Amino acid sequence: MTRVPVVIIGAGGFGREVHDVIEATNAAAAGQSVSQSYEVVGFLDDGHTDAALIHERGLSVLGPVSYLADLAADVQFVIAIGDGQVRRRLDMWASELGRQSPVVVHPTAVVGNHRVVMGPGTILCAGTIVTTNVRLGRHVHLNLGVTVGHDSVLGDYVTVNPNASVSGNAVLEESVNLGTCASVIQGRRVAARTTVGAGAVVARDLPPDVTAVGMPAVALRRRGNDSKGLVAWARRREEAGGNL
Predict the structure, then answer these.
(1) What is the pTM of this model?
(2) How far apart are CA 232 and CA 229, in angstroms?
(3) pLDDT in tens, 30-56
(4) Which is more confidently placed, 38 or 224?
(5) Of 80, 113, 171, 215, which residue is least crowded by CB atoms under 10 Å?
(6) Sign of torsion, CA 126 132 197 181?
(7) Please, which contacts does 110-113 make with residues 24 or more away whose CB atoms are closer than 8 Å?
(8) Cβ-count burial of 96 within 10 angstroms (0-12 exposed, 13-18 middle, 19+ buried)?
């Protein structure tokens, strides 16, 4: 069996969960005589980490994220950091180094057989369900118990937190963060970099760069001061008959 070396960027709680996913994937591969598995060589992190929790796993924090450039050329990477915009920057930098990222899928995840496309670095945690004709971009995170319905598109660096659901024909643009137990109703669009709070229900389209909460989800505030961007989005939505 081929063992692909991989390093986990981010040594916090989700980093340890990603390690669990990889361990479960390896165990399932061994039981099914799959030709490829992963060897986690360690973690990279720029911040303070709980070294004891990492050492319990027989691993260590090898150094800061920049240390990726010094690892052997065949070492791949996954990013276990919740902020999609941070993942974007790290992915662009690591890709310039020529590094590749595996798609990591927990063995209890259910993935449809027809036209499900998953970009590099995508992580599917335990209990996730992705049905049919779904496209997931680069380094998308689907946490525990997430469901994604038919014909939906999740852009690069989207984060869907535990037990959230995305109904059919929905679109989550780049770096959207969908909170725990939140829902996106069929056919709705959440524009780039918007955060949807825990338990919220997206019943109408949401503009970019806002934080939205409630049932139905309403934008509470805009991140940054780009009011022109919000006006432009509203104009495009009106021209599209409210279907943007």
Answers:
(1) 0.89
(2) 5
(3) 877 666 799 999 999 999 888 999 999
(4) 38
(5) 113
(6) negative
(7) none
(8) exposed
